[in-house]
Amino acid sequence: MVLSCIATFVIAYLLGNLNGAIVIARLVAGEDVRTKGSGNAGLTNFTRNYGSKTSIFVILIDMGKAIAACLLGGLLLGRYGLYQDGVALGGLGVILGHDFPALLGFKGGKGILSGVTVALMMDWKLGLLVFSIFLIAYLLTHYVSLGSVLSSGSFGFFYAWCHPERPFPIFVGFFLSALLVWMHRANIGRLIRGEERKTNLLSKGK
Fold first, then answer.
1. 32: closest CA among 108, 115, 113, 145?
2. Do residues 202 and 52 lie in contact, with contact meaning Cβ atoms separated by under 8 Å?
3. Statement: residue 202 has pLDDT above 70
4. Where are the domains of the chain?
5. Which of 106, 87, 107, 64 is nearest to 173 (CA)?
6. Element (H or E) spanning 9, and its range?
């Protein structure tokens, strides 16, 4: 079982290194998205610079790798009756790989797309709930960061409330909630100061 845990985490982490914004920016413009705009390798910065038309490919990559990581963990640990723990471990690995990718100089994105996907894989109902929180906050304010912080910050609490019998997934839920909020600490500061930039995710870009 130890080897299965190690394999799950390592493969999930490496999958996390496959960053959709970086890959698609290279393909469509021959540029590193981290040299543009905010310097973040995420969907928001990608959309601001390249438009929403090709953003679907960023979404597919970042969500797809999270699905693959969680399914892998569930498959490997499910043999030991630990399917949910495997899903959570895969989710933990893929988010850490996305945020701190060794193959990309440890400069990745903030993990919201992959994070929502991990939430869906851990509990699809709670995943839809946190996505709804993001969507409502974004539609009301056009602050992607605000929606991201509210949705990601709430997942650990919702999961613990609904699944008190799952200690490891609860730990992962709280850890990922805290990590994703921490990754937005600069945005939180700008929101407090009234300096945060609004984003139109349906923009055509430059």
1. 108
2. yes
3. no
4. 2-193
5. 87
6. helix 2-16
- For residue 131, the tally of other CB atoms under 10 A from its CB is 16
3-state DSSP assignment of residue 107: coil
Rounded to an integer, what distance in angstroms lies between the CA atom of residue 199 and that of residue 136? 14
| Residue 30 per-residue DSSP state | S
Q: How far apart are CA 141 and CA 59, in angstroms?
A: 22
> For residue range 8-24, what is the model confidence (pLDDT) as tens digits?
999 999 999 999 999 99
Specify whether the backbone of 199 is left (phi greater than 0), alpha (psi in -120 to 50) or beta: beta
Of 69, 59, 33, 38, give the one whose Cα is nearest residue 131. Answer: 59
- Report CA torsion sign: 190, 145, 59, 5: positive
pLDDT in tens, 108-134: 999 899 999 999 999 999 999 999 999
69 neighbors 47 (Cβ within 8 angstroms): no
Q: How high is the pLDDT of residue 60?
A: 96
